[in-house]
Amino acid sequence: MGFVTGMLSGMRRQGRNPAPLLAATGIDLADAASRIPLHRYAALYNRVIAELEDEGFGLFSRSMPPGCFEFLCRGMLGAPTLAEALGRAGRFMRIVLPDLEVAVSSAADRAELRITERLPLGHGRDDPARVFAFEWLLRLLHGVASWFVGRGLALDAVDFPYRRPPHADDYALVYTEHSRFAADTDAQAEDDTRSPLVARFQANLLDLPIRRDEAALAAFLDGAPGKISMLYRRDREMVFRVRDLLRDALPRNLTVAEVARSLHLSSRSLHRRLEEEGSGFRTIKDAMRRDIALSRLAKTRQPIARLAAELGYADTSTFYRAFVAWTGVSPEHFRRRLTASDTSTSSGMT
Fold first, then answer.
1. DSSP class of residue 350?
2. What is the pTM of this model?
């Protein structure tokens, strides 16, 4: 849900009400524990752009008129390698989006994609509009690059120039398991927003050939640019399969070896496949348990001890420690906060 609220931050900054667009796509912001189906997120993405006539979601100093995404792709089409395609993308973005600068560099076996803020994107380092601007542009460039070479491109690590947002656990599923954030005690001043986003990957990926032609691009642009959110996510096939096996087995806790056998893989092969998709066995298990716990606490009155048992925790105290690590509060406090919010909303209705 954090990606949804970030997407809407520019619209709200302009004083526009996103409620009709949310209703049209079946998204309820009040259901904070819920995940958004990808097709609904993509639909909202396109509706916001159409409403604002701005492919930059109203986040930047000037709008990006509809069509910018298409011409970004057309500019990359025909490049001999990914390195040249990304170079063209950086030059195009400099024209249509002066607020952010995109640069790619490599040395020895390492490469970096850097996104640098040239004009202030929000009120302070952790402004939701600023956070989403970086999330969006990295996702856009990474997704388009993956599509052009016909494979998912693994990001080894990403340094994000803001403090860890509440939805940061999902970065492991969208970008990489190795995401780093500015520390709360960073020497960088709160209003100093000049540190770049740095995404690191293997330099040999820059030598990959561009595999898409004009016909493929025409089909790709149908449903774009929102469609980009549905392509080459890090939580693709193997992550989904592992997550489903773990969920279906609850309250029993499957081991890596048991999951690997169910998938007809060795444990080593499973670890490698998950790593290629930017995730890991522990990350998937924790995210699955967290999502179920948040949903049950929000939607049911199930006792905490019973919830812990159904999630496969050996004792309630272990579940408490995990929940505090996820949310910063105890399960009871989380439930009371939701109840108070519901009561406040009801009392304010006419």
1. -
2. 0.68
Alpha-carbon torsion 295, 300, 304, 308, what sign?
Answer: negative
Q: What is the CA radius of gyration of the chain?
A: 21
pLDDT along the chain (350 residues), means of 10: 89 92 88 73 92 95 94 95 96 95 93 94 89 95 90 89 89 85 61 78 92 88 80 63 90 94 89 75 88 86 93 94 89 83 48
* Alpha-carbon span 64 to 171, nearest angstrom: 26
Spatial contact of 229 and 45, defined as CB atoms under 8 Å apart: yes
143/132 Cα distance (integer angstroms): 16
Structure-block tokens of residue 252:
């029993």
* Calpha distance 107→117 (Å, rounded): 23
What does the DSSP 8-state code read for residue 100? E
Residue pair 133/60 in contact (Cβ under 8 Å)? The answer is yes
110-117/157-160 β-pairing: unpaired
Region for 312 from its dihedrals, namely left if φ exceeds 0, alpha if ψ lies in -120 to 50, beta otherwise = left
Question: Among 232, 233, 219, which residue's Cα sits nearest to residue 70?
Answer: 219
Nearest in space to 326 (alpha carbons), one of 282, 281, 294, 279: 294
- CA-to-CA dists, residue 268 to 121, 171, 265, 274, angstroms: 43, 24, 8, 10
Which one, of 201, 126, 200, 130, lies nearest residue 159 by Cα?
200
Residue 94 CA: distances (Å) to CA of 80, 97, 285, 320: 21, 5, 41, 48
